[in-house]
Design goal:
- By secondary structure, the chain is of the alpha+beta class.
- Among the domains are: 39 residues, no CATH class; 161 residues, no CATH class.
- It has six helices and twelve strands.
- Strands 5, 6, 7, 10, 11 and 12 form a six-stranded antiparallel beta sheet that branches.
- The longest helix is centred in the first third of the chain and has 11 residues.
- The protein starts with 10 loop residues before the first helix and ends in an 11-residue tail after the last helix.
């Protein structure tokens, strides 16, 4: 059997053990006079303390005073090669040229130059030519002043452009005598008064007997004084004053009449005709499909004066 190893005589091993197992054997402790014990220190033999300056000649800082170290130079992080992008501008809910104002409403953007004045309108394009075919009388302004000035008497009717013809007075009277007329007895043309009148016999028309109805379109010489006054109040007739304005009269005259697809006008002792046709509307008023019909619609404005309708 081999001899046991002599650990105590191995100085290197002992020095290593001192470093490992003796926490007191360090440079700070030795500097203040601590002398470790021989062998392995223990709680019962921690070693001895030797005062390194028994005479007190080494100056020591006063107790409780801290001496701070020299300040460090400021830290310079340098320039970030990838800076953060700028934030997106807030969205503008206002239309172009406006910004959101402080009260939450859009106002003009002061940074936007306002537009200048618009260019003045140019000359209207030259007309392509006179209207053709059946057109509204209002569209014949500048082409047919005669029918254009009478457009208010042709509601719901189109006229054939360029169809104006002069008609003989006798032929016109023949056409009027053959038509049914407003009261079923035809009509006639009086060239002396320049008027068209419908024949009317109140004796044969029981609808208006014992009423204050004023027949429209008849010869005013058949009116009573009361009927003539009512006719003037109602503004019956097409008579004009010296300035071309409508006027009221107890002796009304009537200067236009439609027979079939022709409209006839009396002017300054002459008779003219135009080809006409009804306007075709896209829709029909609902009241045309039935329902009550007022006395005015069936018998004229004079029905307002009829007994029982007041």
């Amino acid at each position: 059997m081999a001899d046991p190893y002599d650990y105590d005589s191995d100085t290197s091993l002992q020095a290593l053990l001192q470093q490992l197992y003796n926490p007191y054997a360090n440079d700070i402790m030795l500097a203040y006079g601590y002398q470790p014990s021989t062998g392995t220190p223990s709680i019962t033999n921690p070693g001895t303390y030797v005062d390194p300056d028994p005479s007190g000649t080494v100056p020591l800082p006063p107790p409780g005073v801290y001496t701070p170290p020299d300040p460090l130079p400021p830290f310079d992080p340098g320039v970030d090669p990838t800076p953060d992008p700028p934030p997106d501008p807030p969205s503008n809910p206002c239309p172009a040229g406006y910004i959101m104002g402080p009260r939450g409403v859009c106002i003009l953007d002061p940074t936007v130059q306002p537009p200048g004045d618009p260019d003045p309108p140019g000359e209207p394009p030259p007309p392509s030519g006179p209207p053709t075919g059946y057109v509204s009388p209002a569209s014949l302004e500048g082409y047919d002043p005669f029918i254009h000035s009478r457009r208010h008497r042709m509601s719901g009717t189109n006229v054939l452009a360029g169809s104006r013809q002069e008609v003989d007075a006798d032929e016109f009277n023949r056409l009027l005598g053959n038509m049914e007329g407003r009261y079923g007895e035809g009509a006639f043309y009086d060239p002396e008064r320049g008027s068209i009148y419908h024949n009317y016999d109140p004796v044969n028309d029981a609808r208006y007997q014992n009423t204050s109805y004023v027949p429209i379109g008849i010869d005013p010489r058949n009116y009573s004084d009361t009927e003539a006054l009512q006719a003037a109040h109602l503004g019956l007739g097409h008579q004009l004053d010296e300035r071309g304005r409508a006027m009221r009269s107890r002796n009304p005259i009537y200067t236009n009449e439609r027979i079939d697809n022709k409209m006839y006008f009396v002017d300054d002792g002459k008779v003219y005709s135009y080809d006409v046709q009804d306007v075709e509307y896209d829709s029909t008023p609902s009241f045309a499909r039935g329902g009550a019909v007022s006395p005015i619609a069936s018998h004229g404005i004079g029905a307002l004066f009829a007994k029982g309708n007041m």
